[in-house]
Amino acid sequence: MSNFTFTHFYETWLEQLHKLVNQLSSAPRPPSSPDQEHHLVQLVHKVMCHYAEYYKLKAQATERDAVSVLTAPWASSLERSLHWIAGWRPTTAFHLVYTESSIRFESHIVDILRGIRTGDLGDLSSSQFRRVSELQCETVKEENAITEELSEWQDGASEVIGECGDFEKKMGRLISVIKRADDLRLKTVRKVVELLTPQQAVEFLIGAAELQFGIRGWGINHDRQRTNF
Predict the structure, then answer these.
(1) Fewest Cβ atoms closer than 10 Å to its Cβ: which of 30, 53, 81, 180?
(2) Is the backbone peptide bond immediately before 34 cis, with ω within 30 degrees of 0?
(3) Residue 128 burial by CB count (10 A; 0-12/13-18/19+): exposed, middle or buried?
(4) pLDDT-derived band of residue 196, with 50, 70 and 90 as boundaries?
(5) 207 and 100 in contact (C-beta within 8 Å)?
(6) Separation CA 48–CA 61 (nearest Å)
(7) Is 37 exposed, middle or buried (0-12, 13-18, 19+ CB in 10 A)?
(8) What's this model's pTM, rounded to 2 decimal places?
């Protein structure tokens, strides 16, 4: 898959994500029947398959041209400024959980104090919070290990100039770093979704997508304004 082809794929993929988020947003929450809860489970599965497709195609693009993927030409300047190895930082998922949970907790605090369970992200159990914290620590360690691997690759970049025979090996290491970063991104989302209820998972995925849409929208507007000067 060429760089141009992946950029086109990403635009189409993003349009489909918008449609999926609309489906998530229109689904009844909290579910009032087993059928409604099953519907939420199915929607979450569809979104996760959509993310998996993105990383599958991105891996193919990385195999063809890792350097271009690292520069993320499909993204706006703002998006690229926030990137960690050609994508969002995995630990962002945990910040999103904490933020969404806090916002919902504050909005329902009276009901919660009365013992009324909302079932949303503001109603996470102590075991869920504990698991989120554990996952965050595990993810930070993996992030740091991948960052260190990229730093080692960058430190050895000067060797590529004088040793043509080593070029393929160096590119192979870069491909490995990008794939590890993307694997961690997808694994993190999957693990967060697994520890949430269907309703909470829907709210998490909506929040994640809206954050992505918002940053992209701001970035595109910024790039347009910059080109007009």
Answers:
(1) 81
(2) no
(3) middle
(4) very high
(5) yes
(6) 20
(7) middle
(8) 0.89
Residues 210/190, Cβ–Cβ less than 8 Å: no
Contact 135, 145 (CB under 8 A): no
Token pair in block for residue 227: 């080109």
Return contacts of 138-141, CB within 8 angstroms, 24+ apart: 139/90, 139/91, 139/93, 139/94, 139/184, 139/188, 140/91
Q: How far is CA 88 from the centre of its chain?
A: 6
118 vs 180 pLDDT, higher one: 180
| CB atoms inside a 10 Å sphere around CB 148 | 11
Handedness of CA 120, 125, 129, 132 (dihedral sign): negative
Encoded amino acid at 191, one letter: K
- Cα separation, 125 vs 9, whole angstroms: 39
% helix / strand / coil in the chain, to the nearest 5?
A: 85, 0, 15
Q: Tokens standing for 56?
A: 């599958």
Instruction: Measure the N-to-C terminal CA separation of the chain; round to a whole number of Å.
Output: 34
Closest to 188 (Cα-Cα) out of 141, 224, 154: 141
Mean pLDDT for the stretch of residues 37-58:
97
